[in-house]
Amino acid sequence: MEDERDLSGQALQQAIVSVFTAMAGMSAEITDTRDVPPFETPVINARIAFSGPCSGDLGLMIEQPLAELIGTNMLGFAPGEHLIQDMIDDAVKELLNVVCGQFITSMFGSKPVFSLNIPQVFPLSAPVCNALVQSSPLLAFRVQGFTLLGSVRIRKAE
Amino acid sequence: MKWNILIVDDSNVVKAVLIKALTDSGAPINKIFDASNGKDALVILKSSKIDILFTDINMPVMNGIELVKNISQDPDLNGIPIIIISTDGSTDRMEHLKENGVRAYIRKPFTPEQIRKAVREVMLGR
User: Fold this and answer.
1) Subunit contact B87:A100, Cβ cutoff 8 A
2) In Å, how far are A72, A89, A90, B8, B115 from A84, measured between CA atoms?
């Protein structure tokens, strides 16, 4: 069980690092969750579920200023150019969608057919996010000076 | 002759990036249409002459697989070249889609060069 969790964590880590570089031109560096400074403002929580030979879901928790940078970079806008929240959310959803595709290929190979649900985003309060950092198995990254958290859950097919 | 292009994706960010890649590619474009799901795409396909179609797979209402199936079963539409742009990396799914008339499959994240290359191959045969 621990081995499987390690494997899925590694696959998610690789997918996040690769997709952030390719889509947002950003370097995501893994860090220890114990080194994550407490969140003081709400974060954007993005989730996507997948199903196929097994099912599960991936999540990203992203600080708002980092989400804005992601949107700006993906669209090729100039730094500081204003993006509406819908476009920022859309960029985060698309990023997670691609992370999920790469995670599935890395974890299960390119033969099985999986279906991906439509990604969802919603705000998460700082206290809830801080509690999750303390209590859940999350991957933590530093990107452009901001914190990014990733999570993965896999359920066996019945 | 200039082309009418239809882009089907529920992400406005992807549509914007793809439109930029297409306009920068030097392809002869008359008009770019867009839709957010397969159902809306079919309405456009039935009312406008589309020369090339780009579609995602994972979309609400009607996904890209159902859209491809609908197009392949419609004699008025089944000659339209289709390029899939998706996060899905399943080789079985790619093969199935190619059997249903899909001409190229580009995996996200894509580069502008991949778009240029696919358009050249599909529309010009080189």
Assistant:
1) yes
2) 11, 9, 10, 22, 27
**How far is Cα A27 from Cα B100, in angstroms, rounded to an integer?**
39
CATH number, domain at A136? 3.40.1550.10
Give the angle subtended at the CA of A138 by the CAs of A136 and A141, to the nearest 5°: 150
- ipTM value: 0.88
The one-letter code for the residue type at A30 is I
Please state the domain count of chain B.
1
User: Block means of pLDDT (10 residues each) for chain A, length 158 residues?
Assistant: 75 96 95 91 96 95 95 89 92 97 94 94 94 89 95 83
Q: How far is residue A20's CA from residue A139's CA, in Å, rounded to a whole number?
A: 15
Report the number of distinct structural domains present in chain A: 1
Distance from CA of A121 to the nearest CA of B (A): 13
Domain carrying residue A59: 2-156
CA distance B94 to B104: 9
Q: Tell me how far apart the alpha carbons of residues A138 and A124 are, in angstroms, rounded to a whole number.
A: 15
Contact B11 A93 (CB under 8 A): yes
Nearest Cα of chain A lies from the Cα of B47 at a distance, in angstroms, of 28
CATH number of the domain encompassing residue B88 = 3.40.50.2300
Q: pTM (2 decimals)?
A: 0.92
